[in-house]
Design brief:
With about 350 residues, the protein is α/β, with parallel strands linked by helices. It folds into two domains: about 180 residues, Glycogen Phosphorylase B (Rossmann fold), CATH 3.40.50.2000; about 160 residues, Rossmann fold (3-Layer(aba) Sandwich). Helix content is about 40%, strand content about 15%. A six-stranded parallel beta sheet has the order 2-1-3-4-5-6, sandwiched between helices. Strands 9-8-7-10-11-12 form a six-stranded parallel beta sheet, sandwiched between helices. Helix 1 links the parallel strand 1 and strand 2. The chain is globular, with a radius of gyration of 21 Å.
Length: about 350
């Protein structure tokens, strides 16, 4: 079987790294495919996502001509998929990892990529329907893609969960005399963080050696105004390939998530991070996390008292923390790109 040449096209966001690059780079490293990467954000003419197509086709012509297939993450451009097909004869795989149609009005993305921007949603729908195959992260999201308003045919949908790749930093940490409780994420998770805020304040008041580490969003760090300066730390946002180093500062990973329709179509990537880092998690007891896959690798919690009790158990007992971290690490092996990249390769061969 000849080696596939694939063009991976992203929008410059975190999903590019997790959904495109991790698997593609592993497959190229193992000489299973040839590939190239194109970042659509280089060709944007406005914040609304409109693209200078002449510049894109001219700049990407060499890569597009070599490839026979394209993989596009979070597609919103029929012009892109149509051009790849008509100009270059490509088969197109479209990957989607969020239910944009369910973004609530209170969410920061509502007017940009949610129901507050019907033009975006319509372009997204059309793009998914045009693709030869659609990949996604969870069974729940696949179900929604088949239903109104998107209506992607069942035979066109494949599920590949999120995973993790190689880094010397996974499972490592610096020596310290504190127990660090870590959170990291974008500005889209501020409402989620409020679920555990009171428990974090309480745990730092009761245990002077407990420390909160917030990565990426300075506004969430500012929510910790009741926590002493010496018991909190802020880490700036980094490129995804540097993210495993951020987790070396964590002893416990927290994953608060509101029980909303939008959140319940998300993936369990936060628990993947905990497992890859071999640390226990405390996560909201919502369907996206409570699947049974991560059993024993951490605690699932509901209200404030359960958040505090779970955190206290992990802060107090080194053995519990270490045992749960090892269990989470064991589960995470099934999500490493050594495994998942083969699932991606099977999909690419199916489309070709």
């Amino acid at each position: 079987m000849s080696k596939l040449n694939i063009c991976f096209i992203g929008d410059g966001g975190v999903s590019d790294a997790i959904r495109l690059r991790l698997s593609a780079e592993k497959l190229m490293e193992n000489d299973k495919i040839a590939g190239s990467f194109v970042d659509l954000s280089r060709f944007r003419e406005s914040e609304l996502g409109f693209v200078s197509w002449d510049q894109l086709w001219e700049s990407g012509d060499s890569a597009f001509k070599k490839a026979s297939m394209s993989v596009v993450t979070r597609p919103v451009h029929a012009e892109l998929i149509g051009g790849l097909r008509d100009k270059y004869g490509h088969k197109v795989v479209a990957d989607v990892d969020d239910d944009f149609h369910s973004i609530p009005q209170s969410h920061v993305g509502y007017r940009a990529v949610g129901p507050g921007n019907q033009d975006f949603l319509e372009r997204h729908r059309v793009s998914l329907r045009m693709a030869d195959l659609v990949t996604t992260t969870t069974p729940e999201l696949a179900t929604r893609l088949r239903a109104d308003p998107i209506k992607v045919k069942s035979e066109k949908i494949r599920i590949v969960p999120n995973g993790w790749g190689d880094s010397k930093w996974w499972g490592m940490k610096y020596r310290r005399n504190t127990i660090n409780i870590g959170w990291g994420g974008t500005i889209t998770h501020r409402a989620d963080f409020l679920l555990c805020l009171d428990a974090l304040v309480e745990i730092t008041k009761k245990y002077a050696y407990a420390k909160i580490v917030v990565a990426a969003d300075p506004e969430i760090y500012r929510m910790l105004k009741q926590v002493k300066e010496e018991q909190k730390m802020f880490l700036p946002m980094v490129r995804y390939e540097d993210y495993p180093h951020t987790l070396t500062y964590y002893d416990i990973l927290i994953a608060p998530l509101e029980n909303t329709r939008f959140n319940n179509a998300k993936s369990d990537i936060k628990l993947v991070d905990a497992g890859a880092a071999k640390i226990p998690f405390v996560a909201s007891n919502v369907p996206v996390y409570e699947t049974g896959f991560w059993e024993g690798g951490g605690y699932y919690v509901h209200g404030k008292s359960e958040w505090f009790d779970a955190l206290e158990s992990l802060v107090l007992y080194d053995t519990t923390r270490q045992e749960m971290g090892l269990i989470a690490g064991h589960h995470a092996k099934a999500r490493h790109m050594n495994v998942l990249s083969e699932d991606w390769l099977e999909i690419y061969r199916e489309v070709s």
